[in-house]
Input
Amino acid sequence: MFDVIIIGGGTIGTATAWYLSQQNLGKIALLDKGNIGEGATSWAASLLTQVRAKTEAIPLVQETYRAIEALEAELGISLGARRVGSLQIAASDKTAQSVENLVSIADQYGIPNHWMDAREVQKMLPWINAELIQKASFMPRDLFLEAYVLANAFANAAKKAGVQLLTDTFVTEIVVENDKIQGVRTKDNFYPCSVVVDAAGGWSNLLSNPLKLPLPMAPVRSIYWITQADPVQFPENQPMTVLPDARAYTRPETGGLLFGIRDKASPYVNPKDLPEQYTGKQFITEEERWEILLEEGKDFQDFFPKLESVSIAHCITGVSTYTPDSRFVLGPTRIYGFYAATGCAGAGVAMSGGFGRATAELIAGKTPFTDLSPFQPERMGTFDPFSLEFMEKCSAARSNKRDGG
Output
């Protein structure tokens, strides 16, 4: 018997396990149907930009920064975080105003930043068309890292503190009686417990909805490309970029450029159609990969004129859980002992430390370190999370996203 069970071994689930291990809450287990960090987490672009238009998210990502330093100290290893900074780049009057607003937010939260002119940006990003740049703000402390590495660091630190990691353990049901958690059922066993954290990402509603507790989120496809290495065009220390006018973002990747373009109508995936083992699954045809790049990537090509002549090494698709209001699903529910930590809106890696700390504090009966009211799991009332209408709203939230990675 366990006191707390976390379902899901991505960055959010493993972060929750680590933070819970510091709360003296008894026996804790993390269950995942595969291996740690090998699901949707392993395909994340993992841009940990700090400044966010929705300011309630900023304390969560800042906690992830603190967690990275703490994990490195505790485990005695480097997590390979690349602190290359990020550039918010505007090519229109409307976006220039948005960047100015983000700079004001950065100043409010003590996030270092400074303005750069087009010539300075061109020196950092040899591939960019500097003539388009109206405004550019540089956030020098922003970083990225591999999500798989972060998830395993959280998991190893949690295991070191006594958390049991039960991988290859497929949860089929959360068992509830009289609106109170009794345990979880897997394909092979029943594990009694009094607290469950649903951190199952795209699969979360498969566990919560049978309890008549729909969570306001759906899996939506993401896509990015990686070029062949070219150290002249793509310096290893080039910053990440956010290009709202092109619906795109970039970061360096092994001597090449990783760039993502947001579909104008991002395809959603019914959770019931997600594979049991996610590893290697691509949610796109070969033909679609290039259609999106050529058609919906036209604005990005304006910023990157030599894109057509660059060799593409990889095209990667995954799913991330989006909500209609682009706010996370984080907090307690009406079922006693049941907590949700999901609906990451494409920022699960960046927010993982904040998700983990806040969830652990809630379970320990403490006041969370930041306000979680915008993220209440039941804020949208009764609805069908598998309906086409609802999933289309989640898709629109991703398609309309502009800031962050």
